[in-house]
Amino acid sequence: KYGFYHIMKGENPLKKGVLLLLICAIVLASMPGISAQEPEAASSTAIQSGAYEQAKSTLDALLGESLLPEDPQGIVSRGQFVSAALRLFRLTPAAGQEEKPAFADVPATHVHFAAIQMAYDLKWISPADNFLPDEPVTVNEALKILLCAGGYDFMAADWGGYPAGYVKVAANISLLKEVSAKAEQVVNAGDCVILLDNLLHAEAIKVTQYGEENSFQRGRETYLETIYQMYTYEGIVTGTTYNSLLMDAPIQRVDRIE
Predict the structure, then answer these.
(1) Selection from 151, 85, 140 nearest residue 118 by Cα
(2) Cβ–Cβ under 8 Å, residues 103 and 116
(3) Model pLDDT for residues 99-124, shown as the tens digit of each residue
């Protein structure tokens, strides 16, 4: 109280005006309905960070037309995810219409029938009465499919089985990097794209011993390298066939980047 009276007692009108403006601003800001609204929370950390755009760019270049919704917040069904995983591994489903369905709720007329049949035959999917192909896929279900596809199912079984063992393995190989959904949550299209891309950059695993104690060995190559024979390098480009950052570097027209 003393401080406020002491300042106002002075004769400088400019000080009085500035102080009154400050007081009015403070009062207005504290009144309900007048203060600025809080910014909306980001719907997906991964999408905001740019991880989705980078992953989608890679998958579009490798796979062509996507089997997943274009909207990163879109819902992905279990059948859609199985089909996308098969395409990632360059596997083409070819189940005949006369083949006996592996699941009662996936008839031969279903759009993802062939993909689900192939995934079942490859043991990416466990036996059950129904598969619920049109239900949204969850994190745990997506991890089960991808890790079985990549050959990590033996390790996941040793580490606790479904779902805990698969989550542990996924964390160990950075499969969940930049994925915003957790555990039993539904995975949106953006997170599915990131999961698929993360698997491409994971180390390909080889089982070196079968039996009571399984042995695993990670190769030096990633799935991107083993499946697509594509390799990634990091560095600074100092020259191309047309120009160079180095003043004395000779420019030669060759089909490579220095």
Answers:
(1) 85
(2) yes
(3) 789 999 999 999 999 999 999 999 99
State the pTM of this model. 0.72
Q: Is 222 helix (H, G, I), strand (E, B) or coil?
A: strand
Query: 186 near 138, Cβ under 8 Å?
Result: yes
Q: Residue 115 and residue 182: Cα distance in Å, rounded? A: 26
Residue written as token pair 């390098």: 233
CA dihedral angle for residue 152, residue 157, residue 161, residue 166, rounded to 10 degrees? -20
Residue that has been written with the tokens 């011993």 in this structure:
209
- Fill in the amino acid letter for 9: K
Q: What would the two tokens of residue 188 be?
A: 């949106």
What is the model's pLDDT at position 174? 95
- Token representation of residue 226: 């083993």
Q: What is the pLDDT of residue 96?
A: 66
Q: What is the CA radius of gyration of the chain?
A: 28
Contact in structure between 145 and 88 (CB atoms under 8 Å): no
